[in-house]
């Protein structure tokens, strides 16, 4: 178990989705004051409403590229520990930001501009300024996926074969920090995640198998695949830094799977966060989707 403090102040660097709100609630339940660095391009406006209703929460809105302002804000608030929670879309990181001088210098010194390299460098800068970036699961360990079958239906024999193949492929691409998700059908890789995110990858896989190519042979091949359901495999990186980019599954992922015709989801136990597991399982069960937690 990760050791967490029961008193004090926590900085929260908030991206999009429910993750920041779940972490905020957990930190407040531990008696922590929370100083939120809300990213204008990503964080839901509800964060401001939450702060207005809770004197233990203060929100500072800033753009993604304002690294100096982030540091100055946390230092002025007396924050010495911070956590990143919520997705920042990869295309935002590498194409939409207008970096301040500190971030521009950091970007120029990166050997490669993948997510791990960038966020690791940001964590180093924060540490040099007296702000420790802690695990994003520090207050949410009960939400980490358990090993074994998590939904009513267990994977069938074909899905188990797809999982075994998919785990190998997913861990391979995750090792290169390309993405964490692959979609498999009949032990063939249909889609690999890049910058678009898990749900968009699932949608792309569904579209690929639902649109026959020109020509009788191609159409027959596609029909064969259409008889094979999609299996989604999502893993952590081989050397996953739990401070950022931790795999997350929510209701939107199950909705994307149902639309794409996916029937099985395999995730990595102990290193994947399930947001509202009961609701996820209910949605999966109603769609006949198997969910399994794979041991690392």
What topology emerges from the helices and strands here?
Layout: E1 9-14, H1 19-29, E2 33-39, H2 46-53, E3 57-62, H3 67-77, E4 81-85, H4 90-96, H5 101-108, H6 115-128, E5 132-133, E6 148-149, H7 157-175, E7 181-185, E8 188-192, H8 198-210, H9 216-226, E9 230-234, E10 248-249, H10 251-260, E11 262-268, E12 273-274, H11 277-286, E13 290-294
Helix pairs in contact: 8-10, 10-11
Strand order, largest beta sheet: 6-13-11-9-7-8
Give the end-to-end Cα distance, rounded to a whole number of Å: 17 Å
What portion of residues belong to β-strands? 15-25%
The unreliable regions are: 1-6
SSE order = EHEHEHEHHHEEHEEHHEEHEEHE
- Tell me how many strands there are: 13
Mean of pLDDT: 88
Morphology: globular
Instruction: Return the structural class.
Output: alpha/beta
Number of helices: 11
Helix percentage range: 40-55%
Largest sheet data? 6 strands, mixed
Cα radius of gyration in angstroms: 20 Å
Q: Can you give a write-up of this model?
A:
With 296 residues, this protein is an alpha/beta fold. The chain is 41% helix and 20% strand. The chain has eleven helices and 13 strands. Strands 6-13-11-9-7-8 form a six-stranded mixed β-sheet. α8 packs parallel to α10 and α10 runs parallel beside α11. The protein is globular.
Short structural summary:
The protein is of the alpha/beta class. 41% of the residues lie in helices and 20% in strands. The strands form 3 sheets. The protein has a 6-stranded mixed β-sheet with strand order 6-13-11-9-7-8.
